[in-house]
Amino acid sequence: MTDNTPLWTPSEAFQRSTPIYAFMQHCNAAFAQNMASYSDLHKWSVDHSANFWTAVWDFCEIKGQRGERALINGEQMLDAAFFPDATLNFAENLLSTKGSTDAIIFRAEDRASDRWSWDHLHEQVSKLQQAFKALGIEPGDRIAAMMPNLPETVACMLAATSIGAIWSSCSPDFGEQGVMDRFGQIEPKLFIACSGYWYNGKLLNVADKVGAIARRLGCPTLIVPYAGGVTSALETTDGARLLEDFIQPFKAKPVEFTQLPFSHPLFILFSSGTTGIPKCIVHSAGGSLLQLMKEHRLHCGVVPGEHIFYFTTCGWMMWNWLVAGLAAGATICLYDGSPFAPDGNVLFDYAQAEKFTLFGTSAKYIDAVRKSGLTPITTHDLTSLRLMTSTGSPLSPEGFSFVYQGIKADVQLASISGGTDIVSCFVLGNPLSPVWRGEIQGPGLGLAIDVWDEQGHTLREAKGELVCTKAFPSMPVMFWNDPDKAKYKAAYFERFDNVWCHGDFAEWTRHEGLIIHGRSDATLNPGGVRIGTAEIYNQVEQLAEVEEAICIGQDWQEDVRVVLFVRLAAGVHLDEKLSNAIRNKIRMGASPRHVPAKIISVPDIPRTKSGKIVELAVREVVHGRTVKNLEALANPNALSHFANRTELQT
User: Fold this and answer.
1) Which residues contact 499 (CB under 8 A, 6 or more apart)?
2) Which of 192, 185, 189, 195 is nearest to 169 (CA)?
3) CA–CA gap between residue 166 and residue 160 (Å, rounded)
4) 243-251 long-range CB contacts below 8 Å, 24 or more apart?
5) If DSSP codes are grouped into helix, strand and coil, which group holds residue 267?
């Protein structure tokens, strides 16, 4: 197969069976259109934004009162308001299914497992809602959770949002200061935490950390028993209550859903915080619901009863994305722990046993499976799997090929990109278009995506800034503690007037797809030529000797030179022969301009809690500057490997 042949092409029969095809016919009938392709549908969706989002509301059967107006002030992104007359409740839409079938399936690396039916989920949410109200929780109050990816976490979120409280979560691997940097800013009325968690074969007790955070937050604390340490968690946290004791006084009854405005705050998500205190990004109930239902139902083709999975923690926006699958009537499959404990088969074992239809993960995970020598295509029955999604960092062309050669030949592979900023995707897959090696299938419906040069002109098949030129529902409501929106404007609207600049270095392809070449702020500029770091990673990480790489631009002699750090496979040493092989690989696969001036071996590479490598932090260390927020990193000690390198003095 060559790069001139798609890796996957949907048959006409398959296309006609998808929800997005039915949606297109719905819009053709309702708005007198004659759309026949994804490209047609996308163009109409951005040219007629109000009609499109109205159609999404109706087709996805959003529970709530829509009102007559779909969009006001649409020409000004910061002032635009979608469905200004609407009222709804986010949790009501996620709990629209009832019965004895599975709503949530859970597995953990220590082999713990659980299943919650829809009825059981309703019962737990009901009891939690009553307990929250008894505690005085009201609309607009914040509930903060430091929790593993458990069914109880989902239930607490639904109970909070059923009242109109604002939910915020992180994973228990965050340090005390990392948690406080986030939750300390939003002053929660309730703190929910676990007693411990498992990771990579280790049982980690977090009792002391929970106690310290609870004292600093100064609010009531709820302990959810998991992975031991319950007694010590209660002992270290004054006034803490166990979940079962908290809800014991209440009997299950129908959940009450407070009807709130479309723009009512729902989630507070946090930026990575690698360059300072994390930004508190506030997302609306209506905007999040509409955008996420669009992605599940239309882009991912999810239908009631399907089993969908994303490997994520509660500190990454993909958790919020996954749980929204409940609104499509899907069974969500949760996993907590390392995806390589005891080995790399664990998630594929889960996928086979529970018949995943959607398997979501990170590009780093796919690459790690590839390098481990595993071939699930020969060892696992993945008949049910029709869609695999990848995010977190750009998926390399070799990663695309491996999915089809090593995981499943007849699957739609959707590389997706968006982020915490919009609690969803700007660019992603769709089941009506082919999958091309190394390319994201296209822009999201209703999103006026483009790639611009520095003067604001559209680029085709050239690299530039990823922008969105029109308002969309899942834009943040605001940043917390940013009353004049100064931080919000600086984050997205400083570069181009009235245009969202996302900070990704991107490129349109001849197939109307997109390639993300990395973050704009990590773009290299040797000799004034912009180079995306992903272009270098795509080459060097093909080498068996290289486990992982991170690349920065070092200020040098009034210019910038490219410096590549590599983490090598066990037993491999960086000698002249390997250095030359790396340079030749980059020269032939990318260009001579991509070839690094320096190649240096390091034993570890720093990453965020969600697994993203942190090029900016490494760049700061190399230049002798202080990294402002070490708490944002999963392995902050790794930065020491980049400081005061003699190799970078000449």
Assistant:
1) 77, 456, 467, 468, 469, 493
2) 192
3) 7
4) 243/152, 246/128, 246/131, 246/222, 247/124, 247/127, 247/128, 247/130, 247/131, 249/131, 249/134, 250/126, 250/127, 250/130, 250/131, 250/134, 251/127
5) strand
* DSSP assigned state of 396: P
* CB-CB contact of 402 with 364 (8 Å): no
Residue 385 amino acid letter: L
Q: What is residue 125's three-state secondary structure?
A: helix
- Separation of first and last alpha carbons in the chain: 45
Q: Which residues contact 460 (CB under 8 A, 6 or more apart)?
A: 451, 508
Handedness of CA 9, 15, 20, 26 (dihedral sign): positive
Strands (E) in 384-441, as ranges, are: 387-391, 412-415, 417-419, 424-428
- Residue 340 backbone dihedrals phi, psi, to 5 degrees: -125, 30
Angstrom distance (rounded) from CA 37 to CA 20: 10
The whole-number pLDDT of residue 1 equals 40
Q: Which tokens in the block code for residue 196?
A: 């411990």
Closest Cα to residue 384, out of 310, 321, 307?
A: 307
Residue carrying structure tokens 């390399």: 396
Q: Which residues have CB under 8 Å from 23's CB, separation 6+?
A: 41, 55, 56, 59, 297, 298
- Radius of gyration, CA atoms only, the chain: 24
Angle at 484 between CA 479 and CA 487, to 5 degrees: 45
Give the ranges where 4-89 is alpha helix by DSSP (H): 12-16, 19-30, 38-47, 49-59
Encoded tokens for 438: 């190394």
Whole-number pLDDT of residue 48: 98
Q: Amino acid identity, residue 382?
A: L
- Label each residue of 491-533 as H, E or C: HHCCCCCCCEEEEEEEEECCCCCEEEEEEHHHCECHHHCCECH
Q: Which two tokens stand for residue 450?
A: 């483009």
Residue with the two structure tokens 């001849």: 510
pLDDT of residue 347: 97
Distance, in Å, from the CA atom of 309 to the CA atom of 171, rounded to the nearest integer, reads 18
Task: Report the DSSP beta bridge partners of residue 438.
Answer: none
Tell me the C-alpha to C-alpha distance, in Å, between residue 544 and each of 367, 535, 625, 637: 11, 17, 33, 26
Instruction: Look at residues 385, 393, 392, 390 and name the one whose alpha carbon lies nearest to residue 402.
Output: 390
- DSSP state string for 57-73: HHHTT-SEE--S--EES
Say whether 22 sits in a helix, a strand or coil: helix
Cis amide prior to 394 (ω within 30 degrees): no
The pLDDT assigned to 275 comes to 62
Beta strand 331-336 with 358-362: parallel, antiparallel or unpaired? unpaired
H/E element, 621: helix 615-622
The continuous run of DSSP H or E covering 243 comes out as helix 243-247
List of the chain residues with pLDDT < 50: 1-2
Q: Which of 387, 497, 403, 394 has its CA nearest to residue 452?
A: 497
Give the residue carrying structure tokens 């004791």. Answer: 245
Q: Which of 445, 638, 487, 472 is nearest to 27 (CA)?
A: 445
Name every residue whose Cβ is closer than 8 Å to that of residue 26 and which is 6 or more positions away in sequence.
55, 58, 59
Q: What pLDDT does 273 receive?
A: 67
> Which uninterrupted H or E stretch holds 272?
none
Q: Under DSSP, is residue 547 helix (H, G, I), strand (E, B) or coil?
A: strand
